[in-house]
Structures are given as C-alpha cells and as structure tokens.
Amino acid sequence: MIEILKLFIETSSSMYYITLFQHIIKNYLDDPFVLDYVLKSHIVKNVGIIGKTGAKCFLFSWSIFDR
Fold it and tell me: What is the rounded CA–CA span in Å between residue 1 and residue 50?
C-alpha cells in the first residue's frame, strides 16, 4: 500500500489520480498509520497543510479524502 500511495502522490494525471483513489485506495486502505507514514515522508514536497502528527497534505487533496 505504501508504494501505491507514493504513486498516487507523485502522479500528474488527474484521471489516473482519481481512478487510483476510487478503485484501490478508497477500498483497501484500512490502516490510517500507513497513510500517516507516507504523508510524513519526503514524498510530499509542496506542503499546504501540516497535521497534528506532522503529516503533510496538499490543499486540494482534502476534498478527495472527505468523500
């Protein structure tokens, strides 16, 4: 799952981004610590928000996780 999340963050294709989220991440990400680990890593470069645990998120990403 970590590699899938890395691919999700690094992709620049919006269609691929949404498809990857809807069909894989949304259905199979069952451990919030995995997401937290990835969002704390060096993968996330353009930081919009930093959470309480130090996890970073792009500003536009909040809407997709809020579904």
Answer: 22
Q: Nearest-CA neighbor of 5 among 32, 36, 38, 31?
A: 38
Closest CA to 1 of 26, 23, 25: 25
Tokens representing 56?
């970073």
Q: How far apart are CA 12 and CA 66, in angstroms?
A: 21
- What's the half-sphere exposure (Cβ side, CA atoms, 13 Å) at 27? 6
pTM over 0.90: no
20/17: higher pLDDT? 20
